[in-house]
């Protein structure tokens, strides 16, 4: 993915689905997640991002991170990388997602 193009959440979800052991992380707050999220995603709000370390103990787990617009997921990706996760990708915002939500 080029650094100069906006993160394409649809392509990101597709890549997540093809990646063994990958986790799809929604960093919106719990009420936003409850209102609709991408199936199979796990909710780890940006405000509680440090809890990811308890949930995802393997630092080599591929992580695909999204929020509403791509801003919070960018902050979460920076934090996760600093925490030692090696395969972290910001796939953007659910506002641009064209698939089904639950």
From TrEMBL:
Pfam family, one: Rhodanese
Ranges in coiled-coil conformation: none
Domain Rhodanese, residue spans: 18-102
Alphabetized CDD domains for the sequence: RHOD (cd00158)
SMART domains: RHOD (SM00450)
Domain of life: Bacteria
PANTHER family to which the protein is assigned, alphabetical: FAD-DEPENDENT OXIDOREDUCTASE, RHODANESE-RELATED SULFURTRANSFERASES
Protein name (record): Rhodanese domain-containing protein
Biological source species: Lactobacillus delbrueckii subsp. delbrueckii
């Amino acid at each position: 993915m080029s650094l100069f193009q906006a993160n394409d959440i649809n392509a990101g979800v597709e890549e997540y689905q093809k990646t063994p052991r990958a986790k799809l992380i929604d960093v919106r707050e719990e009420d936003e997640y409850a209102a609709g999220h991408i199936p199979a995603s796990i909710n780890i709000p940006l405000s509680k991002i440090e809890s990811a370390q308890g949930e995802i103990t393997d630092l080599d787990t591929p992580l695909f991170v999204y929020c509403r617009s791509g801003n919070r997921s960018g902050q979460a990706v920076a934090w996760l990388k600093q925490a030692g996760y090696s395969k972290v990708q910001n796939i953007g915002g659910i506002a641009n997602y064209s698939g089904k939500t639950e």
